[in-house]
């Protein structure tokens, strides 16, 4: 799904960009193009997640927000995850966000994380394998 969205974004943004470079386009048209692109791309509920770690004591926490397709806030979540690595907190945030979204009836969602390692782990192995391998993310007992 991520590859299709990336391709769609590339195509939808290139065509107007060419014309915008050669012509003076009214701001209303530019805003309308942005709305069309956003509507086309963002048709699934979105989960934005993040994790953090205190540098002095290694205590970590995670959190996120679930928004509907139009961007309206549905629910937020946060949790102290104890001592561990930052990757554990970020993975825990993805897992918690998905659990919460699925409990609210959203079976297909888009997840956004600012950490490429999390994205690669999920894309390459799938969430089920990561849960099995990393066990309890929050405990720091990863391999």
UniProtKB/TrEMBL annotation:
Keywords: Signal
Transmembrane segments: none
Start and end residues of each RNase H type-1 domain: 48-125
Top-level taxon of the source organism: Eukaryota
Signal sequence interval, chain numbering: 1-17
Protein name: RNase H type-1 domain-containing protein
Protein species of origin: Gossypium arboreum
PANTHER family documented for this protein: OS05G0353850 PROTEIN, POLYNUCLEOTIDYL TRANSFERASE, RIBONUCLEASE H-LIKE SUPERFAMILY PROTEIN
């Amino acid at each position: 799904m991520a590859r299709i969205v990336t391709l769609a974004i590339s195509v939808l943004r290139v065509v107007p960009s060419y014309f915008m470079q050669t012509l003076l386009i009214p701001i209303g048209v530019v805003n309308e193009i942005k709305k069309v692109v956003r509507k086309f791309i963002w048709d699934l509920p979105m989960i934005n997640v993040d994790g953090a770690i205190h540098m002095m004591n290694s205590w970590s926490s995670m959190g996120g927000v679930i928004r509907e397709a139009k961007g309206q806030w549905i629910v937020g979540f946060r949790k102290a995850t104890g001592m561990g690595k930052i990757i554990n907190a970020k993975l825990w945030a993805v897992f918690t966000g998905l659990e919460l979204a699925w409990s609210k009836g959203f079976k297909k969602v888009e997840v956004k994380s600012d950490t490429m390692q999390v994205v690669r782990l999920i894309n390459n192995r799938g969430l089920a394998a990561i849960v099995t391998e990393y066990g309890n993310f929050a405990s720091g007992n990863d391999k």
